[in-house]
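For consistency, the fold was encoded as tokens, which produced the following:
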Amino acid sequence: MANLNNGPVCINHHNRPAVAHCASCRRPICEECLVEQDGFKCCSKECLQQALASTAISNDILSHRGRANAKAKFAGFIKWIVILAVLAGLWFSGLGKKGWNWVVEKFNSGKAVVEEKAKEGVLKDKARRDGKRKQIDDFSDPSK
């Protein structure tokens, strides 16, 4: 009888050392019980069919994912082509310089609004911190 301390033994033949684990159910199997196909080593024909079926499903999922990624990249490429075509149309229609100036003006006015809001936030935060600092000073100084 095989010694269990030397490694796993076959699930069907407890006196033989296992040479592999089933690709489907992960049970240890000996050389005699081994059913092998397409690189899969299994304990039975049923487990082999399950392993082959799961591989087919995985391959199908991966191929669908690959096609979806390709479609998304193509859609992104088309989106940029359309944007560039619209911008070129505006430029060559005579609105180009006026349109560009309008975009720059809107960007700069938006930038100024954001900068003003940021300054207001900094001032409010400073006032809040100063108020808390005054409260701490008043609390720690018993003479007040």
About this structure: The helical segments are 45-140. The chain has a mean pLDDT of 82. The longest helix spans residues 45-140.
